[in-house]
Amino acid sequence: MSKLLRLRLALAGFCLAAGMTVGVGQASAEDVTYLLPAPLSLPAFGPFVVAQQRGYFKAEGLNVTFQVGKGGVDVAKQVGAGNAVIGGGIGDTPIIVRPNGVPVKAVAVLGGGALMQLVLDKDKGLSTVKDLKGKTITVLAYQDTTYFALLGMLASQGMTKDDVNAQAAGPVNVWKLFLAGQSDAFASVPDWTAQVMMAKKNIEMIPSDKLFKSMAQAIIASDDTIKNNPALIQKVVRATLKGMKDIMADPAAAAVDFVKATPELAGKEDFVTLSFKLYNQYVYGGQKVLGEMDEARLVVLQDFYAKEGLIKSKTAVKDLYTNQFVQ
What we know:
Layout: H1 3-28, E1 30-36, H2 46-53, H3 56-59, E2 62-68, H4 72-80, E3 86-90, H5 93-97, E4 104-109, E5 117-121, E6 136-139, H6 145-156, E7 165-168, H7 170-179, E8 185-188, H8 190-198, E9 203-207, E10 217-222, H9 223-228, H10 230-249, H11 251-261, H12 269-284, H13 295-307
Parallel strand pairs: 1-2, 1-3, 6-7, 6-8
Antiparallel strand pairs: 3-10, 4-10, 5-8, 5-9
Helix pairs in contact: 2-10, 2-11, 7-8, 8-12, 10-11, 11-12
């Protein structure tokens, strides 16, 4: 056999082996639908977007496709019904949906703080919750967890929803009406707070967990997937928490990659960076183990929901979450 022939055969063998390796890699990539409660372009979903943009899901052997649901409760229902493998909500979402027969748990909580902050207009002399008696407060919706956090903050000061004029305004007007002076305060999240701060509004910001221990975002999975495909959940959680760690370590660099993945925010790196800094300051910190659920906090929240009539019955707390994927 000539040297040329031997070389050709060797090259052919190498190409065949390489082709087989690629084929196996492609075949092993698992398709996953990740359902989010709102559009992916919100900095709130930074951990997911950064994990995707930097290849962390791919490194876990996952081919992740994001789809958008109609809020956290809808996401939980879709995940519980098996229409999506995994989704995003708030740490207390299972409290709301499990009494209605939706079999989901929180499998990781994205921070030890709370997602919601109460933002007040200091130009109107407002700086405390008690100052809001008789005032207008815009909220996303009456069935949203940020509104429930507002109720908790009011209750901590001996107030109820009847002491204020709470107006459901949707995800844009909730902060735009505040900037326009048409509301005195609003139930915010860091994304909206950043929008207001970019307009140099004279504001007072009260993190909700200073008065009421509401929660951060969470990754939600069904009982069935937790039982039958725990390896998949472990991969999703590990990649997402890695994205969150990157934001905590360098929010400006993470913002650049976030904008690359969300071209509708082109040129708004400063806004995304400020949002990420607010998440770092108020939401992502405070966990001994990143992603871990605080059971005692969950118990207090469920008691409040039951007392306020927001749920028809309480659920055994161990059925609301698992920390097995963050250890």
